[in-house]
Amino acid sequence: MTDRASTRSGGLGPPTGGAATAGAAGRPSVIQLVFREKGALYAAYIPLITEGGLFVPSNREYRLGDDIYLLLSLPDDPQRFPVAGKVAWITPANASGGRTQGVGVRFPNDEKSRQLKLKIEELLGTTVSSSKPTQTI
Asked: Which of 5, 37, 85, 126 has its CA 20 to 30 A from that of 72?
């Protein structure tokens, strides 16, 4: 039961697989999120969430506060980072501005997540404060 959102040509593709949502089956979704390029990571990163967070494209129905477990792979890093996140916002289908349907996942408020947030921001460097459009808020 794994949703998979992987980068294709630097983009972030929609999750695939058969994971049930927390609301539907009482179990959290497990999503493998693979970023092969920094541009895709930049487009998904949510710097406005204090604990850190990422946009996950999905056509599944979620509710705010639903648990989502991410297995996160960052560009040029063989390590996978487990994240027990929560849905912090939802971008519905047919959202204005052509935004991709999916959810914003807030990282937990713990030391591992703080280190992951710092690692992501280090990877992105000055790009993190860029005005380039993203899939996030």
From this structure: 126
Q: What is the pLDDT of residues 6-34, one digit of tens each?
A: 433 344 444 433 333 344 446 778 999 99
Tell me how far apart the alpha carbons of residues 59 and 68 are, in angstroms, rounded to a whole number.
Answer: 14
Q: What is the DSSP letter of 128?
A: G
Question: Coil, strand, or helix at residue 78?
Answer: coil
Average pLDDT over the chain, rounded to an integer: 79
CA 84 to CA 82: how far, in whole Å? 7
Strands (E), 1-137: 3-8, 11-12, 29-34, 53-57, 67-73, 80-91, 102-106
Q: Closest by alpha carbon to 15, among 58, 51, 63?
A: 58
Whole-number Å distance between alpha carbons of 49 and 134: 15
pTM reported for the whole predicted model: 0.74
Over the stretch 84-107, which tens digit does the pLDDT of each residue have? 999 999 998 888 877 889 999 999
